[in-house]
Write a structure and sequence with these properties.
The chain has 124 residues and is mainly β. It is built from two helices and six strands; from the N terminus they run E-E-E-E-H-H-E-E. It has one domain. The radius of gyration is 14 Å and the shape is globular. 30% of the residues are buried.
Length: 124
Amino acid sequence: MVSVHAHAEGVRYLDMSCRCSEPPFYYKDYESKDIGVDPNDPKFGEVSMDLCRSCDKLWLKYHIEWDGYSRSGRWYRGEVTPEQAEGITPQKAAELLKMAEWHFKGGSYYKSGGIRVQGGASLF
């Protein structure tokens, strides 16, 4: 399980200037844990939880790729609270990202290393 590190007085430190708050995202900046594959996704979306090594933000990531189609890879990434991360499943991950106030999306489908988008993710 991904652990959350608390700072002074148990307050989670949120630094909007942290590298995790803006693309491009670099995998070595995170402690990552695979959550699983979403069986409700027709393309079996792969879900992971990333913990930023610098500021302790938790990020939910959902990756989809259509085999046999070039430029079909896409990912969605949204910040979650420790409470939301507790007991997360691939199905719950999809719902959380669809209901997010904002998220990042990127991949070959979007021809982007990541852009911030207002509103929930449209996964399919």
